[in-house]
Amino acid sequence: MSKSVLISVFVGGLILILLSSVFIVDERQKGLVLQFGQIKAVKENPGLAFKIPFIQEIVRYDDRILSLDTVPTEVTPSDDRRLVVDAFARYRISDVVQFRQAVGVGGLRTAEDRLESILNPVIREVLGSEGVTSNTILSADRAELMSRITDQARRKALPLGLEVIDVRLKQTNLPEQNLDATFSRMRAERDREAADEIARGKEAAQRLRAQADRTVVELVSEATKQSEIVRGEADAQRNAIFAKAYGADPEFFEFYRSINAYGNALSADSTTMVVRPDSEFFNYLKSDTGS
Questions:
Q1: Mean pLDDT, the chain, as a whole number?
Q2: Mean pLDDT over residues 46-64, rounded?
Q3: pLDDT per residue as tens digits for the range 93-105
Q4: Which helix (H) or strand (E) element contains residue 42?
Q5: Is 189 contained in some domain?
Q6: DSSP, residue by residue, 152-212
Q7: pTM of the entire predicted model
Q8: Is residue 96 a contact partner of residue 61, using CB atoms and an 8 Å limit?
Q9: CA-closest candidate to residue 79, choices 124, 46, 128, 7
Q10: 124, 149, 271, 287: least CB-packed within 10 angstroms?
Q11: Averaged pLDDT for residues 60-65
Q12: Which of 33, 36, 14, 17 is nearest to 25 (CA)?
């Protein structure tokens, strides 16, 4: 093998060893230098760092704030009204050495499983404590409850090397079986209110109808009364006119009355008339003086 080849192999080996001994820690990460599984160094500052090539390895962990959505948990407040609570937590890895020792090679997935096993009991404990009712959980007062949950979860998560920053309740619902019963009760209540409204409406309609009927009777009675008065006054005026006319010319009055009687009696609808020939009815037919 020529000298130039040996030099090339040597330089290539040096470059490989150099590249294997250098690593970069991102500003969003923290790193651990491990040697045969044992922690040899902690790299928390971003930048270039070194390790023993082929013997040591670097494990990086996210240094940002992370989120964890918990599985919906059923809680029973002090008023025995069961609720299903959906929560989420924000956390970060505060101590990478303690984190590695707690979760091992499982990493973030194992840490989140263990953190969720901490959060769910704490949520049930706080929301099920004495004096906490479903109305408290559903009102603005639950901010104080979330603060208590955060404090307890933070203390219990410290051995995992995690810092729980905040725990929030996303949704609070009734269980499915309770929802059906609640909807049935609400539907029955609405049906009862609707029946009450219909009954009140019918009562008001009947009252208005009775008032209208009474008004009609009163108006008809008043109109009948006025018409009878007008008719009576008209009859009186007519009789007065007749009396005056009779007094002015009795003979003409008799003639006028007889002509009207002939017109009414001998109309086109009358076909037969039986009277005595010497009846007074025909006086003005026999004589123009009616005598």
A1: 79
A2: 74
A3: 988 888 888 888 8
A4: strand 38-43
A5: no
A6: HHHHHHGGGTEEEEEEEEEEEE--HHHHHHHHHHHHHHHHHHHHHHHHHHHHHHHHHHHHH
A7: 0.55
A8: yes
A9: 128
A10: 271
A11: 86
A12: 33
CA distance 100 to 93: 10
Q: Is residue 198 part of a domain?
A: no
* Higher-scoring residue by pLDDT: 240, 157: 157
- Which helix (DSSP H) or strand (DSSP E) does residue 32 occupy? strand 29-35
The answer as to whether 72 is a domain residue is yes
* Interstrand relation of 22-25 and 83-93 (parallel, antiparallel or unpaired): unpaired
Segment 199-221 mean pLDDT: 89
Q: Which of 167, 181, 182, 177 is nearest to 124 (CA)?
A: 167
Identify the domain containing residue 130 by its residue range.
Answer: 66-173
Backbone angles phi, psi at 74, to 5 degrees: -90, 130
Q: Which residue has the tokens 């059906």?
A: 180
Instruction: Say which residue, 92 or 258, is predicted with more confidence.
Output: 92
Domain's final residue, options 12, 41, 62: 62
